Amino acid sequence: MSTNAELATIFERMAAMLELLGEDRFRVNAHARAARAIEALSGDVAEIAEDEKALTSIDGIGAKTAKKIREYVETGRVHEHDELLAKVPAGLLEVLDVPGLGPKTVRMMWQEKGVESIADLKRILDDGSILDLPRMGEKTVQNIRESLAFAAKSSERIRLGDALPIAERLVARLEKVKGVQRVAYAGSLRRGRETIGDLDILVSAKDGAAAREAFTGMEGVEKVLASGEKKSSVRLQAGKISVQADLRVVDDAAFGAALMYFTGSKEHNVRLRERAIRMGMTLNEYGLFPETEGEKPPQERGVKPVASRTEEEIYQALGMAFVPAELREDQGEVSDGWETPELVEVSDVRAELHAHTTASDGVMSIVELAQCAKARGFHTIAVTDHSKSSVIAHGLDEARLRKHIEQVREANGRVKGITILAGSEVDIHADGSLDYDDELLAELDVVVASPHAALRQETKEATKRLLRAVAHPLVHVLGHPTGRIINRREGLQPDMAEVAAAAAEHGTALEINCNHLRLDLRDRDVRIALEHGALLALNCDVHAEDDFDELRYGVLTGRRGGLTPDRCINTWGAKKLHGWLKKKRGG
DNA sequence: GCCGTTTTCGGCCCGACTGTTTTCAGTCG
C-alpha cells in the first residue's frame, strides 16, 4: 500500500474508534475528513509533509492532523492511533461495518454485553441476550441476522461494469410505468467510480405509488428493506450480482435538486450546502432556497426555490461552473474560479489501439475485427496480439508474428474505410526488457508494452521495470500499467508520478484499459499522469465484439481523472495519430 | 479537530425511514 493509502486507513480507523468511544462527533468527522483528504491527494503525502504549510493548506488538514502525518512519515507510527487500538478491540470495527449497526448500538453491545467481534455478536443473537438491550426488538434482531447473511454473501463492492447494465435495466423498466416523468440513476454509479456500493435510482412521477410498487415488485427483488412515500430500498438479485437498490420519488419540479443530492458525493454536497449558507441560502434535495425564518424546512412552508428543476440552474445560482458528475468528489471543484473542463466523451474516440485476433486469444479474424471497428466509426484499428511469453494466450513467436504482420498488411489493403495497423501487445519482463528484439519491434506500426507476469513486485522494482519499458524508443503505449484486477488482484504499485514523468519525457502514452475488470490506469493515476504531462490511451483490449462496449467504463475513469480529448491519442484524427505513431519509427 | 463574507470562538448539511416508542433515537445516504 502507498503511504497515502496507509495513512488514510489509519485516520479512517481512528475516526471509527473515536466514534465507538463516544467522542465528540465533530472530532470524529474531522478524522474521517482528513482520511478522505489524504486519500484524494495526487502527490505522495510523505513529500508534501516536508513542507509544513503545504500540509495545512489542504482542506480538512489542520495543525494537529499535520503533526500526526509528520509523525507517521518520520516514525512509521501515529501514537494516538496506537493508544486507540489499545482501547478498542479490533473486531469491534467489523461489527460497526454490519449494515444497520451504527456507533451507538455497537458501543452499547460492547459495554453491556461484552461484544468485541462478529463472533460475539452472533453469540448474543443466538442466546437471545441481545433482546436485553434497549430499543432492541424482534424485528431489529431479524434485520441484524439478515445483514450478517448478506454481508457474508457479498462482502465486496460491485464493479462499475456489472452495476451499470443493471441500473440501466431498472431505469428502462421504471420509464414504462404510467405517470413517471423522469428517471435517472445517480450515486457513485453516475460519478463513474470503479466500484459501487448500491444503486440509487431517482424518479419524478405524478403517481409516486405506482413507481414505488413497480420498483419493490420488480423481478429479482429478494427483500424490501424500506418502503415509504418518498423512499424505498430493496435487496436485488441480478444474475450472480446481489445488490441493494434505493428508489427516491420526487416532484418533477425538484428533479434537478434531487439528482444533485443523490449523485453526491456526500462531501461535494456538504461543500455546496456550506456555500449556499454563505450566500444566504439553503440547499437540500428539494431545491436551493432563500434563507427564511421558520421551524419547518422551506419546501414545507411554500417557499419558492431559487433553483430546483435542473442541476445546471442550481450550480448557476450558486455562482459556479457546472460540475460533471465524475468530478464531484470535493477535490477543489467547489472553489471560486474553478472552470468546467471539456472532458473526453465516448463519441470522441475514433481509434482502438489494443485488440486481439484468433492468432492469439481473440475470437475474431483480422477482417472481422476491422469491420467491427469500422462499424463503430473508427478510422484506425491496431491488431496487437500477444507476444511469445504469454503462452496461455497463444502468444506469437517471431516467425508467427512476421507472418501475422503480412496478413495484417494484406487485410489493410482489402478492407476499405479503416486503417488496420500491425502491432503487438508485447510482454514486459520482470526486469523491464521486452519480449521481442528491437529489429522485430521496428517492423510494427504500434507497440503496446504490458506487464502480465511478476505482478507482485515491490514498488521500487516495479517502478524500475515500467520506467525501462516507457523509455524504450520503440514503445508507443504502456498497456494496463499495473496489471491489477478489481476486487481480485492488487497488481503493481509503481511510483506513478515517476512513470508519468518518464512517459511525458519519452512521448509514450499510458493506457487506460477500459475493460471493467481492469480500469487500469485507475482514476487517480490518470490525474497524476495528466499532471505530469503524459498522454493517455483509451483502449478496450478487444478480444470479442462486445469488448468494444467496454469503452464507456474507460471513458468514465478518464473523466474522473480529468482527461480531455487533446491528451487522449484515441480521439485524434487519423493523420495526427499515424504521424505520432511514425515518430517512434524515425519519421 | 477544522475553519473563517458571522474570522481565533463557536459553530459544524439535511432529510427519510424503521422500530420501538407514545414523541423519538439511530442509521443511512
Write structural notes for this entry.
The chain is of the alpha/beta class. Helices cover 43% and strands 15% of the residues. The strands form four sheets. The chain has a seven-stranded parallel beta sheet. Strand 10 (351-355), helix 17 (366-375) and strand 11 form a beta-alpha-beta unit. Helix 1 (3-20) packs antiparallel against helix 2 (25-40) and helix 1 (3-20) crosses helix 6 (79-87). The radius of gyration is 26 Å and the shape is globular. The mean pLDDT is 91. The protein binds one DNA strand of 29 nucleotides through helix 2, helix 5, helix 8, helix 10 and strand 5.
Helical residues, percent: 40-55%
Radius of gyration: 26 Å
Trace the largest sheet across and list its strands: 10-11-12-13-14-15-16
The count of DSSP E runs of length 2 or more, i.e. the number of strands, is 16
- Biggest β-sheet description: 7 strands, parallel
- Counted by DSSP, the helix tally is 24
Mean pLDDT: 91
In percent, how much strand structure appears in the residues? 5-15%
N- to C-terminal distance: 41 Å
The residue ranges in which pLDDT falls below 50 over 5 or more consecutive positions are none
Overall, the morphology is globular
What structural class do the secondary elements suggest?
alpha/beta
What descriptive keywords fit this protein?
587 residues, alpha/beta, seven-stranded parallel beta sheet, five-stranded mixed beta sheet, 24 helices, DNA-binding
